[in-house]
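Risk register update: the risk of archive-format incompatibility is retired. Evidence:
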Amino acid sequence: MEHTYDPKVLIEALPHIQKYNGKTVVVKYGGNAMVNEELKAAVIHDIVLLSLVGVRVVVVHGGGPEISDMLRKIGKQSKFVKGLRYTDRETMDIVQMVLSGKVNKDLVSLIHKAGGNSIGLCGMDGGLFQAIRMTDDEDTDYGYVGEIQSVNPSPVIDLLENGYIPVVSTVALGMDDDTNYNINADLAAAKLAVALQAEKLILLTDVRGLLRDRNDESTLIPTVRVSAVPKLIKDGIIGGGMIPKVDCCVEAVRMGVRRANIQDGRVPHSILIELFSDAGVGTMFY
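Archived output:
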């Protein structure tokens, strides 16, 4: 069968490529796209392609499933408090090993195999992320889960200036205690995007985006002005696990990131579709 190529794809992409050339895009990589091999390959190729067309792309990653696997291997139960992994001292050691050792270096090697140039960092490198112990109004004990107090983007900027794709794991240096902290990857990506004054923040997740009706995928809300968010929360359209993700996007946009996206990591090449096509995917906050 003869393969027909549609040049319209590239023609449509051109103005978008020009728009993002030399700009910084932060991609938070997690969820199903990290577990499914086909999706993983698509994400890695998207990231390499962005880098090759002159986009300064930064990858921030979690690694929940791999952490849970490793805890299971040592006979330890994963425990979650209000959606965050409860992190005692032993779990913190495992989090640091798995995120900064295994997951981070696996991603770096996948990017290299796909023709990209990448260096892995964790939040302790160059004091990239500094955090204190996370608390809330109800004095919830999350263990060694941290809240980022300061971001030093210099190590990431240095890598970008030298043509590397920085791959960042979300473990932070403790400021208030002699420990390192486990950090929520969405929050870390948002804070880093702000510190880099990125053009775009993309949170890859396991839903299409923000849905008007949570049980109906066709009710996607494609764009949301950040000032409309409180009402959407009050009306129950933004609820549950979506609230912290949306909060990350709102904070990023309010602090100078031009656009923030929550989009479906289950769609192959969703990063390219979002950045380089007129259609876009997911929900964009502006």
